[in-house]
Amino acid sequence: MEPSTEENVLRGATFEMEDLLGIGQEIFAKMETYGDEVAMVDAETGEETTFADLHKKATSVALALTSKGVTPSDIVTLVEKTSLDAFTIVIGILFTGASVNVLDAGWTAPTVIPSQIPKLKPKVIFCDASVEELVNGVVQGQDMDSAIIIYGGDSNLGHQVFQEFLQDFEDTDAFRPAVIEDLMNTTVAVSCTSGSTGPPKGVMITHAALHQLISPLKGADLRGMTIFTNSGMSWGSGIFILLAGAIGGARRVFTKSPFSEENLLRIMREYKPGLMLLSCYQVSLMNAYLQNKKDLAAPFSDVLILFAVGSKLSSKHVEMMQEYLSNGKFVMSYGLTECMGGTNTITCPEYRPQTVGLVCMNTELKIVDQQTGLNLGPNQQGEMYLRGPTMLGYYNDPEATAQVLDTKTGWLKTGDIGYYDDDGYVYVTDRIKEIAKYKGYYINPSDIELVISQHPDVRSCAVVSVPHDDVCDLMV
């Protein structure tokens, strides 16, 4: 992609991708070098898994998938509950060159699974045992021939379980991952949007996009460092931490428990993570929890980098958390699933209230006047547009793609209002789109209106969002 020649466009630094490998190739090669170093730790049991063991089992997954006829042109879905098996499955899928699709097995499953699986038609579905009946019903109802593999428990419907799936593929020495020639235009994942641009859609993520996602850590030696997040792999943040560990050589600590302030502090005391990623809502929860218990904040002194993602965060919360990070940096970021990045504060030479940082590597940003369509200069608010070499649009949905992405120029309409200052620091101030964000989850007000309007005593109703320091948006 050639840089834009338009005026009033912010451009991030560039890094060359010509010598980079496909993501599966990159992980395969790096993990081989890490050998008996610890790759994964279960925070509940303390059980450790080495890179060598993870590499071998992921390779067995790849061989088993290949025996099922999976090729780089296929999609393989993981319906995820956090576990070592889930991480192993995703890495194995990447080794095959197929596109990985991760769907959450939690509270969004009843709506997301029936809407996404029929669109994607995955060749194989790895399904947590807790949602086997739901997934099986979708596959049978759509008359699909997707193979269903159960992990995290036994099958109640006669499907093959994960260990049986692998049992004939223990000889992994001869396997080599699929070679990816065109990183810019080859899909490595189909990620479900978080809902910020309307109903969830499958975004085609390229190999180049995932290299760009981890570009903030480019050149960093993570061996010997512990990393942690509560985010699942259906979120870009969860994939970011998976890649940071698998490619960077860091020790990944994971938990199967939902987020709580007490559990996070326990994990921090026991494992001393140097890099963490939390949602902005989790940061606000920690600040509230520690406000009158500052003596419990000591583990934050071990954190070197704390990424906060997912929504806006007030200056109050940024400054409170930075105070706890006595030896570390608090990093805010802004981006969409559609582009795997946008801005972050990791390279900012100084703190500025409310900023989401500078434009990321290989990314361009412009602010557009909504009435005239002209690019605006510094300190003028308008709609934010992003452009990078990694945006392909929505899977099998050209109409939805055309609504947000100009495929000729590569500019993506974000639906967010913002501006940049004289030094290129970016600020997000409002939304054009109807979607609100509450405690890290996107909420469509019209969905709430539909439920309320079904009450026999309600003649009409309207739901709107109002900004809130702690939860991002309140619905009223």
TrEMBL record:
Q: For this UniProt entry, what is the primary localization, expressed as one broad class?
A: other
Where does the protein end up? Peroxisome
The UniProt similarity line reads:
Belongs to the ATP-dependent AMP-binding enzyme family.
Residue ranges constituting the AMP-dependent synthetase/ligase domain according to the UniProt record: 30-395
Q: Mind listing the GO molecular function terms for this protein?
A: CoA-ligase activity
Pfam families attached to this UniProt entry: AMP-binding
Q: Which organism is it from?
A: Xenopsylla cheopis
Which GO CC annotations does the UniProt entry carry?
peroxisome
Q: Does the keyword NADP apply?
A: no
Keywords of the record: Ligase, Peroxisome
Q: What is this protein called?
A: Putative long-chain acyl-coa synthetase amp-forming
InterPro entries recorded for this chain? AMP-bd_C_sf, AMP-binding_CS, AMP-dep_synth/lig_dom, ANL_N_sf
